[in-house]
Task: inverse folding
């Protein structure tokens, strides 16, 4: 440490951030086992054991909330996870640097826009006077109130999430692609391999470690959909298909002040995420040789 103290000094702010904002808050999970009273604090609030967990699992709408959370998470995993990989592969084939940089900027830009603005844009596009319904009427169709139809809600959530994050998520894959030895492609070209064979025999195997690590991290956060996106799109007519664990936590914790219940929900999500990560890591290590631990 004395020899490389500069490197440790550079790493210290990041380590301090993780310690303060990732590890110290874990101690607050004890309020899931208390009848937490904000004026009494953690030390003086009475202990109630697993009372709040029993309340969660007997909650009348739990099945619907869990189903919505799992379905939207599954759709985002199936359709959202491959999207940045495909985008990175497509951008990697663009040879004009100015055109490639322009495309990258266009795809990166939505990441820096808040969900409130994104929600306003989507509502405007899908309104009765929006461009989607205008085009639909041009082809003889009837206008549809997409944002008020439960059958369209999950598709809108998944597609808007892909549009917002696909460019930003593709950065890691683009960086991994630049690390592939060009001589491998030259040798494959000499052997008569076309673009598809180079993709399946060189590019994808080289990307596999990166893909598996990011997939495992995604699985570990399977139940973490993000409150902002869902809440922006949620309406009374789509509540039955859009109410998820995060929106339930908002209602119970912020609006009703049941901090112990919401902490119990958060602890439940963390345990489920850890279990899924452990199983996914084991399967990945046995099938591909790649793992987080």
Result:
């Amino acid at each position: 440490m004395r020899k490389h103290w500069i490197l440790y000094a550079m790493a210290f702010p990041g380590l301090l951030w993780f310690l303060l904002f990732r590890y110290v808050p874990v101690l607050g999970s004890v309020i899931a086992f208390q009848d937490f009273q904000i004026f009494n604090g953690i030390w003086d609030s009475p202990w109630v054991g697993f009372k709040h967990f029993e309340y969660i699992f007997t909650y009348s709408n739990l099945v619907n909330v869990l189903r919505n959370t799992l379905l939207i998470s599954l759709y985002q995993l199936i359709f959202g996870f491959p999207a940045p990989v495909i985008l990175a592969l497509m951008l990697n084939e663009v040879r004009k640097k100015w055109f490639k940089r322009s495309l990258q900027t266009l795809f990166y830009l939505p990441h820096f826009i808040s969900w409130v603005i994104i929600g306003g844009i989507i509502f405007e596009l899908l309104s009765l006077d929006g461009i989607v319904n205008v085009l639909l009427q041009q082809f003889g169709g009837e206008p549809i109130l997409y944002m008020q139809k439960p059958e369209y809600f999950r598709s809108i959530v998944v597609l808007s999430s892909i549009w917002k994050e696909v460019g930003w998520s593709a950065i890691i894959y683009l960086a991994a692609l630049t690390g592939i030895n060009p001589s491998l492609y030259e040798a494959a070209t000499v052997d008569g391999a076309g673009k598809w064979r180079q993709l399946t025999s060189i590019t994808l195997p080289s990307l596999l470690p990166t893909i598996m690590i990011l997939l495992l991290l995604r699985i570990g956060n399977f139940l973490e959909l993000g409150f902002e996106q869902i809440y922006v799109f949620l309406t009374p007519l789509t509540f039955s298909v859009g109410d998820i664990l995060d929106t339930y936590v908002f209602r119970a914790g912020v609006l009703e002040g049941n901090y112990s219940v919401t902490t119990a929900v958060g602890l439940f999500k963390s345990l489920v995420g850890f279990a899924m990560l452990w199983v996914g890591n084991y399967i990945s290590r046995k099938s591909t040789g790649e793992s987080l631990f």
